[in-house]
Amino acid sequence: MIENPPVERPVIAWLIAPQIGIPAIHSARMETNVNRMKIHQIVLTVETILGWIFSERASLS
Q1: What pTM, to 2 d.p., does this model score?
Q2: What is the pLDDT of residues 3-15, one digit of tens each?
Q3: Contact between 13 and 24 (Cβ < 8 Å)
Q4: Rounded to an integer, what distance in angstroms lies between the CA atom of residue 35 and that of residue 6?
């Protein structure tokens, strides 16, 4: 299971510079979403390749 990113980074951004706190939190969330999308894409690609290999084997035998 994918763990949620640590919350400290945005909180520190809020404490150090409130005016850039919101963009820092936003970018951290965006980063997480992008990483999840990349992982999801990789999983789908692997599943597609494996599915194709197994269907080829099934049709050959």
Answers
A1: 0.45
A2: 655 555 555 555 5
A3: yes
A4: 14
